Input
Amino acid sequence: MKAIRASFFQMTMILRRDMMLFVCCLAPIPAGFFFRFAIPFLESLLTEGFHREAILSPYYKLMDILFAVLSPALFCFVSAMVSLEEADEKTAVYLFVTPLTKTGYLAARFGLPSAAAFFATCLLLPVFKLTALSPLILFLLAAGGALQGMIVALLVITISSNKLEGMAAAKLSMLTIFGAAIPFFLRSNLQYFLSPLPAFWIGKTVLQDSPLFMLPALVLSALWICVLLKGYLRKA
Amino acid sequence: MITVQNLSFSYTKSPFISDMNFSVSKGEIFGFLGPSGAGKSTLQKILMGMLRTYQGSCQVNGMECKNRTRHFYENIGVDFEFSTMYEKLTARENLQFFASLYEKKPRPIDRLLKMAGLEQDADKRVAAYSKGMKSRLNLIKALLHDPLLLCLDEPTSGLDPTNSRLVKDMILDEKAKGKTILLTTHNMQDAAELCDRVAFIVNGRICALDSPRNLIMSKGAASVTYTWFENGEHRASCPLEQISSDAQLKRLMAENRLQSIHSSEPNLNDIFMDVTGRTLL
Output
């Protein structure tokens, strides 16, 4: 545990020296203000301008989901970037032959940041949410978001071999989050084509206000994480 | 300290390391010599617990490498051939971080930096270090937690003669403290100077294993080559142990007609080529 803690704090030290990554970690706060205040303001402008009752408000639940996934996705993106830098500098290989070991390394780089993101979401989402989410849904959303963040990070480090490729891979990986939007826009059974994405079930959970839909989301997340971890360990 | 029995390993269907057997005692410097791709790095990875799908037995400090726990690494220090430092951090910050991973109390960082001649550059970012400085820093990083076993991969590679001497002295100091050292190198001179025993590895097999001196003595005798002038320059040689029975040499010496004379001892490289039929590089 000592090695995992030391390695996690080492990552925070690296972050303090990298402005881009540091800003990424703080981004959920200004984003929260945007979601909470700018979107309703925009909605009032749009509804007045187009003389419609609602334009954006039917999608407020989707905005809450996107905000719930934002902190984990950004935290884990930052971890993935640090991890890719460690792969470039070969420090990761060295860390594997210390008491940290590969398992400890994964815990320090992806486990702890996901846990931190979970707590950050639990704190930020009640403040910045646009709809009335029940405490249970809020908790599940934070958990699902943390797992989604881990999936994004593992996708990035598994399919890319340096920081540059990582940036491109991150953009692609973030697309998996948009699975949450499908139930909002596709009402027919066609929507199930994207059901292998955990975010799809997170979308259904919030849209239908049914915590049961989180079960497939959690199972699928675990599967994705297992497969990606296997790929990463084979590569590392 | 290390016991390897019937070790086999494969990345694909065909065996990469086959039926390897050797042991290394506490306080010994054991060298792995072989051309690139011979299996030295793979063997080191197995010994460091990084590759665990091998057959046979491979024990380090009494622990089977495939069953290693995190405590296994408390007593192993690894110096890879390449730099494994955080480039954006200073040498001191790097060493402080790596020391914090171990349960053991670390060796004093300033003393280690001084040993490696890096005390003036301790607070410089590693990115600004030369290759030689990085190499020395890598070595002291492996010594931080005072491990019982050191795995060193080409520790003198890319160093100038002065720093190479410094590194070799540091290795010999560790041996004097009773540490066991595994040394992988292409440098035959280093191997001959530092190692108590060496193993020649080719195609995943150990072709020869003994002390450098025994290998040299068993495979080839020293010879004496001499030249003289007699209707043009002539050259002849004879084994060193038969020098007294070489009538021609005796005659030339008596007549003071020798133009040159020198002895040549086989070195590890000659023995390696003799045993394996290959060069090291």
About this structure: Chain A has a mean pLDDT of 91. The CA atoms of residues 6 and 135 of chain A lie 34 Å apart. The radius of gyration of chain A is 19 Å.
